[in-house]
Amino acid sequence: MTQAGPAWTARTEAELRAALDNGLTESHYLDFKRELPRTDSANRNLAIDIASLAVDGGILIIGVDDATSPPSLTPIDLTNLAERVTQVALTRPDEGVPVRTFPIESASQPQLGYLLIHVPASPRAPHMVDGRYYGRADKTNRILSNAEVVRLHALQHAAQRDVLADARNALKALLGDTPDPPPMLLLLAEPTGAHHDPLVALTGSQSFQQTVRELIGAAVIAEHQQFSPSLRSPAQVIRRAGAVAATTEFHEGEPFPGSEHTAEVRLYESGEIVVASRRAVVFPNSVDEPQAFEPLIIGHTDLLARLAALVSERYGFGGSWRFGLIVTGLRGAISYTLATQPFSDRVPVFTDPVYERATIASLLELAQSPQVVVNRLVGSLLRSLGSHERWPWLGQPSSSGQE
Question: Which tens digit of pLDDT belongs to each residue from 264-307?
């Protein structure tokens, strides 16, 4: 019997027919729709289907009638259907759910076919439609109880607390017993649902140096890396304990605190990715006038978000990622971006010594709109510094999903 989990797919009508004949049926992860009428009611029901599947991830197939045994194929008009589904998914649930659509053409009827909709497990589930939260039972959608909603939200908050605790431990391990450590940026990305030690294939490879450079090169957006220390052209790629690393320093020892121009990205066998860097806070005039160096903070965060998506795709895990960001040495700092502009005499002062933020993002979100993930991590800091309007590309997803 064919079973469909969240990652199951078919690419042809023959594959879909064979799966149905072999026992493919609706389940917690799979829903069928015979058709999708062009009505507001149909759009609402579609939004409920997507919100329900988003709790654990799943697939919706339009063009399959489950009233027969086995379910039968009912080819539908595919014209603009994928665009309509994507629009409904992003606008009708609260908040929107990014989905991926895969049209399958009918072999015998041109312009007709079937639409597979992959709904990733949403890191911000449950999602609401028209004031109600929805989830998935064994084979049907259902309204979630208040207790279930509270539990799911609590799990989200707990995951964010956990990744921040891991980020603090990673920063402490890097600095060791360094007296009076300098201001630092520490970013941590942790994959969820990945198989055990998913990056052994990378760390065990004799060509790891080339692979790491390729991954970083593909993740770098040049205009987002105009600062020092930048990782767009690492000085070397070396081995670390349980990891491989791209670093700006020409030595094999531990790099921190190091020089002012020290930055490193580590890819651990466990799947974790760590970015650490000096110069998160700079002192261009005197030690009494610290400035939060936003280009570096944003640029490294952007690199990590894009790198996580590339690592997922290359090494085959499609779950969500947890991100933690820590910036130290901020008490009394002002915005570097505003301080270097004319008429910037009165700028906000950051009053806390440390900035911390965590978020969770699906692989689809990282692949399509990494800047939105970056904004969730750095946005509060930028607003506190008064410089958020200087970074218009943050939080603005493009239609192509690329910058």
Answer: 999 999 999 999 999 999 998 765 689 999 999 999 999 999 99
Quick: pLDDT tens for 124-158: 889 999 999 999 998 899 999 989 888 888 777 77
pLDDT at site 1: 52
Give per-residue pLDDT as tens, 22-43: 988 999 999 999 999 999 999 9
Q: Whole-structure pTM over 0.85, yes or no? A: no
* pLDDT tens readout for residues 380-392: 999 999 999 999 9
Q: Which residues of the chain fall below pLDDT 50?
A: 397-403
Residue 243 to residue 269: CA distance in whole angstroms? 6
Domains and CATH numbers, the chain: 13-144 (3.30.950.30), 151-390 (no CATH)
Q: Return the HEC string of the chain.
A: CCCCCCCCCCCCHHHHHHHHHCCCCCECCEEEECCCCCCHHHHHHHHHHHHHHCCCCEEEEECEECCCCCCEECCEECCCHHHHHHHHHHHCCECCCCCEEEEEECCCCCCEEEEEEEECCCCCCCCEECCEEEEECCCCEEECCHHHHHHHHHHHHHHHHHHHHHHHHHHHHHHCCCCCCCCCEEEEEEECCCCCCCCHHHHCCCCHHHHHHHHHHHHCCHHHCCCCCCCCCCCEEEEECCEEEEECCCCCCCCCCCCCCCEEEEEECCCCEEEEECCCEECCCCCCCCEECHHHHHHHHHHHHHHHHHHHHHHCCCCCEEEEEEEECCCCCEEHHHHCCCCCCCCCCCCCCEEEEEEEECHHHHHHCHHHHHHHHHHHHHHHHCCHHHCCCCCCCCCCCCC
